[in-house]
Amino acid sequence: MRVFVAPIMIAVMGFSSCNSFEYSPNQTFDRNSYRDINAGNLKRLGDGRNDDTVRFILTGDTQRSRDETVRFTKKINEMPGIDFVVVAGDITEFGVLQEMEWISRSLAKLKPPYVAVIGNHDLTSRGRDAFTTMFGPLNYSFIYGGIKFVCHDTNSREHKFNGQTPDIPWLKAEMQPQEGVSNYVAISHVAPNSDDFDQALIKGYTDNFAAVPGFLASLHAHAHNYQLFYPDDSGIPYYITSSMGNEEFLLVEIINHKASFERIPF
């Protein structure tokens, strides 16, 4: 008995002591996990003060799409003049750390910096804790090329339609006139045409954007297929990018306070 039990016990102890071994769906970080990806990549990006042509990629719903994410990364790295990439939520399917790490390892090979927005699947299990550790706050903003990008949580269903998601007071504060900012772009996962968006907050949400001078577009994912819609008569476009699994993304270009959008397969 001693001959066989001791090696088994040692092996078990070795596995259980290794921080990189994914032993529980409740795990939110390990020693190999990335930390504060958004903040680190935004530091790399800088403020683009002298960049008069802003070009970025919008993608989303990378869950269950590791191979497609690898091909996406190669495609983006072949494209000239891309300033940054936005992954608009649902990095994971089950909110599990290992899923988030798999996708992040592929996206880390992008030449341009990237940032991520929280998706509804990322809020399942312990996904919220894993996301905030690896990427940062659920609501944040940054300025590049005189444009303020307001990234926020619109996953109302996962917050039990509590009337606070999206956080409209926070959005209003972020979109106040600001020196050096001429335009605004909102980015979130769930669009206001979805049943997963709190129906009681739709008007306040869209009215807020309509009232912001220089507001260019509201950008989303979640539906897995490309959509363009106008929820009111403000003329503001609401775009939904296709999913990573459908091998298509949006190229957004902003020049002279005007935005253009191109669907690109890969």
TrEMBL record:
Superkingdom field: Bacteria
Domain Calcineurin-like phosphoesterase positions: 55-226
Single annotated GO MF: hydrolase activity
Protein name, entry field: Calcineurin-like phosphoesterase
Species annotation: Pedobacter caeni
